[in-house]
Structures are given as C-alpha cells and as structure tokens.
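Sample 1 of the test manifest.
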Amino acid sequence: MLADIITIGDEILYGQIVDTNSAWLGTELAKIGVKVRQITSISDNPDHIIETLTALKPLTDVILITGGLGPTKDDLTKHTLCRYFNTQLVMDEGSLEHVTSFFTSRGRELTELNRQQALLPANCKPVANILGTAPAMWFEEEGIIYISMPGVPFEMKRIMTDTVLPELQKRAGGNQIIHKVIQTIGIGESFLAEKIANWEDALPAPIKLAYLPSLAGVRLRLTGQAAETVDLETQLNEQVEKLQTLIPEHIFALGEIPLPEAVGNLLKEKGFTVATAESCTGGHLAHKLTSMAGSSEYFMGSVVAYHNHVKINQLGISAEDLAQYGAVSEEVVSQMAANVRKLLNTDIGIATSGIAGPGGGTTEKPVGTVWVAYADAEKTVAKKIFYNKDRLLNIEYTTYTALNLVRQAILGV
Amino acid sequence: MLADIITIGDEILYGQIVDTNSAWLGTELAKIGVKVRQITSISDNPDHIIETLTALKPLTDVILITGGLGPTKDDLTKHTLCRYFNTQLVMDEGSLEHVTSFFTSRGRELTELNRQQALLPANCKPVANILGTAPAMWFEEEGIIYISMPGVPFEMKRIMTDTVLPELQKRAGGNQIIHKVIQTIGIGESFLAEKIANWEDALPAPIKLAYLPSLAGVRLRLTGQAAETVDLETQLNEQVEKLQTLIPEHIFALGEIPLPEAVGNLLKEKGFTVATAESCTGGHLAHKLTSMAGSSEYFMGSVVAYHNHVKINQLGISAEDLAQYGAVSEEVVSQMAANVRKLLNTDIGIATSGIAGPGGGTTEKPVGTVWVAYADAEKTVAKKIFYNKDRLLNIEYTTYTALNLVRQAILGV
C-alpha cells in the first residue's frame, strides 16, 4: 500500500513553519507497512489543491491531507474537496454535537463560525477529532482513500493513532517494513563504503542499505521489506551482527541514540565519573554531556580554560610547557586531561585544545588543528585532529572526536 | 519568480529525517522576492526524480533540488540529471582539484569514489561546495533554472548564501526588497505588539512588519518592497529610529546579530572581561560566548560546577549556605558569580543555577526554577526565572536570560 502526503499551508512554503507532521506520518505509516511515496507541500489555493489531488490520484492508494481546516483558514480544504468530489456540504449531526459540547464544556458560547465546522462534504465519513473542533474526513472514491485532517500536530497525531492507522493497517495487510539503524563514528562515508562493500553486496534482496552522514559520524540504515510470513526481524539482526564483527571499533550505537547519550550510558554502566578541561570547545563538550537527563550521575564539572592564565592557575598547567610547546600541543592537552581529573576528583578527565578559527592560525598550526586527550588512573591518550570547516563546526567536530576517544579508551577498541 | 523545491531521500519519506532544508530555503528565497510554489519530497528512485522534474517544469521558473549527492552507492541525482537532460558525465577539472585538495589538506588519500565526485553532467555549470566534496550544479534549459545541491544542511546553506541566492536575486530583478531586523528581548510578543501598536499602524504602505518570536526574544522584521526609484532605505531607517525611541530597553541588536555576539561586542567596546560559573547550563553559557570569533578578547574561562563538591572546592561556595538555601537559590548563585569573577580575575562574573529537568524538581522548586546572577566590582544582581519546556529549551532560555542580565547591568537599562 502506497501513501501520499499533502500538506497545505503558505506558512510552510514561506519557511515560517517546519513541516514536522510529515516525518511523524512517515514513521508511523512505515511501522504498519505503508510506504510514503511522496510528500507534497502546497499553498492555500483551491486550484493548487485540486491539481495536486488530480495528479497524485493515479499514482497512489492513500492520500493523507493535513492543514487548511479550521475557522482561521476558512475551512479551505473542506470546500475544495467538495469541488473535487463534485458534492456539497451537509450538516453532520454527530460533529455538531461534538463541537457544541467542546465549547459548552469550556463555558464558551458556540459562534456561527464554530457551528459551520460541522458542515461536511456529503460523501465523507467523519472521523472524530477529540482534541479540537474541526473533524477529520475519510473519503473513498474509485479505490483511493483520501483522509483530510487538521494541521495542528497534536490533533492530527491523535486522529491518526485512534482511527486512521488502525483502519489502514487492516486494509494494508501484505508487506512488513522494518528499519535498523547502526551508528558509526571515526570513518568517512567513502572509506566506510569500501570497508563494508562485500557485506553490502551480499545483502539479501529484501534488505536495502542507506548511508546517512552527519558531523557525528555516518548512520547506516538497513531497511527490510517482505511479506508478513518472512522472519524479517531475524534476517535484519543477522546482518547487523555481521556488520558488528566487521567494524566493531566504529559502531557506537544501534538505534537512534546520540553519541553523548551513548557515551553517557557507557559511563553509567561502568560507574565512571568524568570531568572536562576545555580550551577550544569553550564549554561545548560539557554542554553535550549535560544535555542528557540524568547526566549528574557521571558528569561532575568542567574547567573551561580559555585564557592561558586559567590553564596555569586553575588547571596547574606548567607555564614552561605552555611557552615551549604552545597551548595546542600533546604535552599541554595531556596535562589538562590528567589535571582536571585530579582537581575534580573523577575517574576520567577529557581535554580539548585547538584553533577553532577563523583567527589564531599559524603556518605550523593552521586553523582546524586540535588536540584532544583522555586520562584515567592508568593512562593518558592524546589524539591530534585536523578539521577545518567553520568555527562552530570545528568546535562540534572536536566535541564528537573527544567523546569517541572516551568510548574507545573505555572499551579498548 | 516562482521556485519549486525537490528534496530527494527515502529517509525523509520514512520520517527518519525532518526536512528542515525546505523551511530554510523558503525563508531565504522570500527575502529576495522569490516565492516557493511547492515542496516535493520524493524517494531515491531515478524514475520518480525524472517524473517529478517533468511534471514541475511547465509550472515554475526555478527548481532547487537537495539530496542524493554523495560518494556512496546511494548517489543517484547526478546520473538521473544526465538522463533527464540527455547528456553524460564528464570530468570537471576545477571540481577534481577541489576534491583532491580537500583530502590532501587533511592528510588523507583520494579514493576512486572521491575522484568520481568531480564527474559532472556535461551541460552543468559547477557551483563550488567549499564545505564538502560533492559540487553543486547549475543547469539552464528552455528558460528554466535547475540547481542541484547536496542535502547536508550546512553545505547546502553555504552554497545558497555564497552563490545561488545572489545569482537568483540578480535574475529576479523588478522591485527592490529591503529587510531590516530589530531584535528585542525581555518582552513577550503580545506585550510588545501592544506597546508598539501606534507605530505599527502608522507604517507607510510599502513597509510591512513581521513578528518572529524565538527563545532568544522577538525579532521584528520590517520588509519594504517598492520600485527601484523609491528611496526605500531612508524610509525604513526612519521607522527603525522611531522604534528605538519607543522600546530602547528591549532592543539588543539591529540586524541578524545573535545575542551572544551583541553582548560580546558590548564587552569588547567597554574593555570588560568575563567568566562564567555554571550549574544548570552545564557549559552552554560558555559555549554561546565562545561561539563568536574573537571571544578570547573578553572571555577568560568558566567553572562548570555541576556537582556540589565542585561548587564548594573550586568556586568556594559555603557548604553551610548550600545546605541551608540549596544550590538553586539567590544566595548561592550570587556567590557563584562573585567568586568566579575573583577566581578567574575578570571584571564580570555570570552564574546560573537551576533545575533543568526532567528530574530533580520539588514542590517548592519545580523543574524550570532557575537563578541567574551578575557580579562586577561594585554590585551583584540576581534574578529568578521560571521557564519549563524541556531540558534543552530550559538550558537555552537560561543562557539567554543570563546574557541579557549582563547587557542590562552594563547599560543600566
């Protein structure tokens, strides 16, 4: 079963609203084996709506429409659907009852505009919107299902969950679709592709692979699609297991877990506490670690030592080493990691020192030159990276590299 | 001039990625007077791409394509555009040079997959992608402009800003469109609207006002649109000046200057240095201050005192006060600001302490209760806020409130 999503609203085209409804719909439909064929975002214009419906009709099985319902939009979608289906509005008694009780239960009077919300195209089956006043509408014509819903996210989601998804699942039968996400770090997309080429080529037919690169690494997504009778879950898990044996050092999470959370979970699991000493990341590393709820279990604090006098006075970095090697050096970053660990009395210290740019670069140490270090009671590990995009990206990339260093040091990979 | 956006990628249809690119494009295109007609999100399927291009071609002037470019087997857009334009790939020497230096400057070897990124359709004009390896492509055929860009947001935005938007603006011609942004903080949208209602009502016809609320305050955008002969710039500047006399205490910047930069500029101008002592913001305040190039002129460092023992040992907070008032209190946050100032030897200290959630709230101090403080040689000012959305939003809101406190204390507003 294929579905098309139409989102109606000038505010989406002007970029005043990010369309998060479609992503939610895509996720939920995939779970019941309905594949979204296309998402089309169009203006509040009746002709545009009709043209879009006409164009999509021969290509899909289900058309989900969000937006253009409600008193402020003049119920544009409803009138346009009447034109499209060549029918007219009639008062729906059930919907009138709902909208009336919606207002009276809130101690507010029903206006004529509200009353008109219960006027629905004669050929539709009304679908209850218990969180709002504009009912959703279900149409079936020439084998195509059309569902029109308000654009307000919480109303739309409730309508989908209570009524539309269960009903579509009944109709869809057929194929199941399962996704598995494997998150990697420390290897570029093309190198990763080369390293797992044999595995990828040998993937069984119903399983497809996608590379989703970002600053924090490359996410791999396996998508399996097969009849309900096939044990797709087992097939996918087998492939994930094979991949894990191929690149164990690069996989930091199975599923949609951000790197700071994966590292936080690892720290919690091992019972380790951590502190950071930051120069070029300027607090971003501490921020990422504390962006997770419950991080106070393992994160104790940070010394952001931007100026050298803070490195000397607070972190106890030797002024001689600073003068001899410079702040951006293996010697200094290693001392930072080891010293913050002792200072804040934690199991692990992490440190960063680099040139985030755009200023401050030299021929020897150009912008993007960064040292990160990890220290525990037994060892100190430092790593040099070079990454030069823009200041913020350099900072973010350093943070992810430092977090990965912690992961590698703890796991010994 | 009308534009259509096509976003390519199964991950959008599956809902694994929210399409934020389109909203950004819609906003930026609107600024240069180009209206987005439709956004179409489609799968990684060559036939689907060709069908979509063919369907949109008679309806629009510009087709912006994002996604489907990258050094893996997923990469289809380039090949599909060759099929659509009935042409073939040729090696583009400029792009090859760029991709080669991209890898060699990072000390990495160029693979065959990377080299192939410089193969481009013979009829395209390559557009530099300085932040990535996949070049963007500009096509013109039968009066329609086609621009194909990678889907990675920061690469796409840079390509648009550097090349595509200026070029489209030149082509769009016609009316001049000028925007003026006035950024306010510390006043809600509806209160602001009331306060400036008379000014708004008296705006001359070619000038329109938009309220753009965000966590960091309400941005006001004046948009003037008129024939080239009108002195629109002067008209707009007059209105901005009038507004400045109405709400001087709330305006922190004219133009798209983020609050941390506005505060940084103020510190630079006054020659003041600053340090932060952070509990609930966990380094976010330091991160925001250091996200600006040149921040080392005024930002010395930070002590992120997440655990109470760091507050006591590093910041010298009295253990008695911590026990008596709790970490989230006027007494403790004021000491934090005053002490970090002395500790890091700066003119100004800023501190935050609060309950970011989701855990840690009590009846007396529910999640969202936060104290921020400012200290200089003469005074200490503390402010209580209550803002409870989710953890990250609470942290961000606290950061902006603390920065505004610095601005107000320095300016005496």
